[in-house]
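SEQUENCE-TO-STRUCTURE ENTRY
===========================
What this section holds: a protein sequence and its matching fold, both as plain text.
Tokens: labelled as protein backbone structure tokens, with as many entries as the chain has residues.
Question of interest: how does this chain fold, as expressed in backbone structure tokens?
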Amino acid sequence: MYKMIAIDLDGTLLTDGLTISQDTVTAIQKSMELGIVVTIATGRMYPSAKRFALELGIDAPLITYQGAMIQAATGGEVLRERLVSFEIAEQLIRIAADKNMHLQVYQDDVLYSAVETAEVMAYSKEVKVPYTIEPDLLKLAQKGFTKLLFINETDGLDLLQNELQALFGEEAWVEKSKSHYLEVTNPEANKGSALLFLAQQLGIDRSEIIGIGDNHNDSELVKSAGFGIAMGNAVAELKELADYTSFSNNEEGVLHAINKYILEPRAALVNSES
């Protein structure tokens, strides 16, 4: 029997309208009542993820910023944090300026942009977090960033991803979270490594974990879990990695997965014992 479920937010738990169906909420809460650890594993900021955790009643630590931070859902203790070094951040800031690409950075749960752009305004509106304008991002970089995010057209980010991966190698984690989002984190900061760290802290074996996602940045989550599930709307590469493909995020794919692999097997076990 599985003991832990780690669920991505955008494109997975959330519909395209950024909502969670009531039936999915109920299934998650029933799973927790059975003793299953349910957590969120997202690229979003902690404050944004916390809002959904509170809606669901999740009290397990949350995996945020692509795995760069693991923090208690109720706030307070940070279990793990991996920052992007000044040396890497400095190069990224200069590359963004040279290519005239939007770059936003995250530090101490604050979203920063050097200038107010359409990209940062749209992002802030979508995830419901404020942003701060700081023209001197290099000054902030000396303290280290939780992550850096490029927002641009798909083709431009594909080229940039190849360029950054060649430039940094194993010194940074460079991955897309959406077709127009390219994220850079510490090399130890991905959803898979964060998931295994959290599971170890909770005394849960890898084989007892379900990981559910939809995009490229969920590849390590799906691979690291004992049972990896791709959403019906997932990118093809993730479906190839996954053990099972569920319905889409707009068809309650998470609800289907929880029913199939958590609630129905538990109900069958109870009935057999009785």
In short: The two ends are 18 Å apart (CA to CA). The longest strand covers residues 102-107. The chain has a mean pLDDT of 96. The chain is about 40% helix and 20% strand.
